């Protein structure tokens, strides 16, 4: 790990920025996926013939919304040549954050 910091210092600034952005987004995706850990028992409950309570339905909906927000990330990573598309994808995501003048 100690060598990793010195390697990062020798990289160009734009490359370091790209790596830090990638690490930040990877950590965000992992954190969101960790939040959806309880989705499988909920889904299996209906398959096993049990019914969902209203609280479980709300929890299931929250899990599905989390996964839906991650779908652009997951689709972009599964496409062939996705590594080459990452700079375009990062630009597109950044453009979406800009407030519209509605």
Molecular structure report:
- By secondary structure, this protein is mainly α.
- It has one domain.
- 80% of the residues lie in helices and 0% in strands.
- Helix 2 runs antiparallel to helix 4.
- The mean pLDDT is 76.
Please tell me the total number of domains.
1
Which spans of ≥5 residues are poorly predicted at pLDDT below 50?
none
The main pleated sheet reads as:
none
Count of individual beta strands: 0
Q: Could you say which overall geometry the principal axes of the C-alpha atoms support?
A: elongated
Subunit organisation of the chains = single chain
Q: Helical proportion?
A: over 70%
Query: What count of helical segments does DSSP give?
Result: 5
Report the mean per-residue pLDDT as an integer. 76
Radius of gyration: 19 Å
User: Strand-and-helix sequence, N→C?
Assistant: HHHHH
Strand percentage lies at under 5%
Structural class: mainly alpha
Q: What is the straight-line distance between the termini?
A: 47 Å
Quick tags:
102 residues, 5 helices, 80% helix, 0% strand
What is this entry, summarized?
This protein is mainly alpha-helical and 102 residues long.
SSE diagram, text form:
Layout: H1 2-10, H2 13-35, H3 39-47, H4 54-78, H5 82-97
Helix pairs in contact: 2-4
């Amino acid at each position: 790990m100690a060598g990793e910091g010195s390697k990062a210092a020798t990289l160009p600034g734009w490359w370091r920025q790209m790596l830090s952005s990638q690490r930040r987004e990877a950590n965000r995706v992992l954190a969101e996926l960790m939040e959806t850990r309880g989705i499988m028992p909920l889904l299996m409950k209906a398959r096993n013939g049990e019914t969902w309570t209203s609280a479980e339905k709300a929890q299931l909906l929250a899990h599905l919304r989390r996964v839906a927000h991650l779908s652009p990330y997951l689709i972009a990573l599964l496409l062939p040549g996705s590594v080459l598309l990452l700079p375009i994808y990062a630009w597109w995501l950044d453009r979406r954050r800009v407030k519209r003048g509605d």
